[in-house]
Design brief:
The protein is built from 2 helices and 15 strands. The protein is mainly beta and 237 residues long. The protein has a 4-stranded antiparallel sheet. A 4-stranded antiparallel sheet has the order 7-4-9-15, with no helix packed on it. The protein has a 3-stranded mixed sheet with strand order 10-13-14, with no helix packed on it. 24% of the residues are buried. The chain has 2 domains: 138 residues, Galactose-binding domain-like (Jelly Rolls); 80 residues, no CATH class. The C terminus is likely disordered.
């Protein structure tokens, strides 16, 4: 759907593709859809791609993973990821900026207790200014859900696994155990007979309140606490 008076929605496009024949672009579809090969993204656009509801009964964590190509030079125009447990109220994270190359992005969420379903939305919004960039393309969109914590050592009889801590201390400071661009640890894992790896990831300590402002408060919440869990993923789309 769109909120600019025109019918412009997410649709398949081939200008930038990571795998296969097409990705999706936020104003390509609909009666008034435009071609990004010859047009910048429209002004006053609000286009949402809502997925779900997904059954999360007996699941505790979800992950959305996708490839993203982003060309947004107006800081007021944004690409959004959001979730809802009732299909009406969504909580959001947003990004803006220029990254004219494919980036893999994963968003983890520890689900509020007592919920049985979840909706995931990808959205794009622009203000009234005339755009001078192309927007965002999404490819290889996946949605995963994770069952509650299991004991890593029970995953195989040989108990051949590795536990990673979230941080390591050096020079009286804490650093991520695996840093961006580092390949030594991954290369070592591929050379061993490791059957499982216990991975750390960030989750919200508490679900965001109903009056949380878009992006800001929820971003702070999601950065508050680290947990290490061994989880068995299951794809739901």
């Amino acid at each position: 759907m769109s909120n600019d008076g025109f019918e412009r929605v997410w649709g398949k496009d081939s200008l930038h593709v990571f795998g296969g024949n097409s990705a999706i672009w936020p104003a390509r579809g609909g009666v008034d859809g435009v071609n990004p090969a010859t047009n910048f993204y429209p002004s006053s656009l609000e286009s949402r791609l809502v997925c779900g509801p997904f059954d999360i009964t007996n699941y505790q964590t979800i992950m959305t993973r996708y490839m993203r190509w982003m060309d947004i030079d107006d800081p007021n125009d944004k690409f959004w990821w959001g979730y809802s447990t009732d299909g009406t109220w969504f909580y959001w994270l947003d990004w803006t900026g220029v990254a004219n190359y494919w980036v893999e992005q994963s968003v983890y969420l520890d689900l509020p207790s007592g919920k049985s379903q979840v909706w995931i939305v990808l959205a794009f919004s622009s203000d009234w200014n005339t755009a001078t960039s192309r927007g965002v393309w999404i490819d290889n969109l996946e949605q995963w859900r994770y069952k509650p914590t299991v004991t890593c050592g029970n995953l195989d009889l040989g108990n051949k696994g590795i536990h990673f801590a979230a941080y390591e201390k050096a020079f009286e400071q804490w650093f991520p155990i695996i840093r961006a661009g580092e390949t030594n640890a991954l290369t070592g894992l591929m050379q061993t007979d490791t059957k499982w790896v216990r991975l750390p990831f960030m989750i919200p300590r508490d679900p965001p309140p109903n009056d949380a402002p878009l992006g800001r408060l929820w971003t702070q919440s999601i950065m508050t606490e680290w947990w290490t869990r061994c989880v068995m993923p299951e794809s739901v789309c």
